[in-house]
Amino acid sequence: MVWSADKTEVKSWNEWDTLRHVIVGKADDGHIPPPEPALDAKVPEDSDMRGQWGRRPQESIDKANELLDNFASMLQKRGVRVDRPSPFDFSLPAETPDWKTESNFGCMPPRDVLLTVGREMLEATMSYRCRWFEYLCYRPLLQQYYNEDPKMRHEAAPKPRLTDADYHPDYLSEKIGEAKRLEWAAEKFFVTTEEEPLFDAADVLRFGRDLVVQHGFTTNLKGIDWLKRHFPEHRVHTVNFPGDPYPIHIDATFTPIRPGLILNNPHRRLPQDQRDMFEANGWEIVDAAQPAHNQPPPLCYSSVWLSMNVLVLDPKTVCVEKSEVYQCDQLDKLGIEVVPVDLRDAYAFGGGLHCCTADVYRDGECEDYFPTLS
């Protein structure tokens, strides 16, 4: 079937087939959330965000929205249909019978919340209390897609309680030290426990019949087991990256560009036993270029490795943040057309080009890119 902009259809099986329809986030009313167990473990010990919370400065919100709007406009000019979320008042407290936190987060990174696998759009559990209600920003769009596409499946993973039992108290210390964090990461000891299934959608990469999921701060083994049960026709693979003291989301660590080519963060290399699956099926795993910056922007959770957080428009065309000149140059030398996008001043609201988007439709069908596993 030929895709038509006049008809809503949900379908996306991988990270690289031609993108036709996407959700781009907004920075409206973005908040630095109050302290909570999952968040405290994520914020680097030397970060300027330690001890800060509240609404972000309006000028930073306006700048981020300008960049996101420009990005959305650029995609539209290239023929991509773009939808946007519906923000609510993120200054409101988030509260359940088990806990209360004094504000929500925002809706800049839809990739964290929504996982599109084939014709299904799945709302992730989320593992931060301040993001428990973030799915509401996308419900109007999901309802629209469901009403307009009779084959679309709208699913939601079971909402977790997120009590203190979901988090290891060892991570609540402000002075753990990077050496200890690296040791814990190598031992697969993360802030999340196995109390209940937890996963963020941005920890999942789609390779047709196979899903590759990072086990770390935001996704636990029980969450990966839930995904295995939920997608029984898929092979679900667990991966770890021992060099990362703050293992949050896979898309600044392991980035498929096209069939057969993946960028891997050289400081967080995939262990050899996990690389074997890729190499046995002809995949080349290349060290990503070094970031152009040695510090993240002010009040930003993310690492400098958002340099490799790119959005693939098709197997020959990739959007890269325009200041990341080394990543642009590397992809150019690999035969990729690079589309530079100014987004750095929006990083603080939830991440890079991959983070601030969620697929609705890509060309292509479900293929097997790892035939040796069949």
Can you walk me through this structure?
By secondary structure, the chain is an alpha/beta fold. Helices cover 19% and strands 20% of the residues. The protein has one domain (19-373): L-arginine/glycine Amidinotransferase, Chain A (5-stranded Propeller), CATH 3.75.10.10. The protein has helices at 37-42, 58-77, 139-148, 178-186, 221-230, 272-279, 325-333; strands spanning 19-24, 31-32, 54-55, 81-83, 94-95, 100-101, 114-117, 120-123, 153-156, 204-207, 210-214, 235-239, 254-258, 261-264, 284-287, 311-314, 317-321, 337-341, 357-362. A three-stranded mixed beta sheet has the order 4-1-19, covered by helices on one side. A three-stranded mixed beta sheet has the order 7-8-9, covered by helices on one side. A hairpin with a 2-residue loop joins strand 16 (311-314) and strand 17. The chain starts with 18 loop residues before the first strand and ends in a 12-residue tail after the last strand.
What is the top-level CATH class? Alpha Beta
Q: In angstroms, what is the radius of gyration?
A: 19 Å
Strand-residue fraction?
15-25%
Give, in order, the helices and strands. EEHEHEEEEEHEHEEHEEEHEEEHEE
What count of domains describes the coordinates? 1
Major β-sheet annotation: 3 strands, mixed
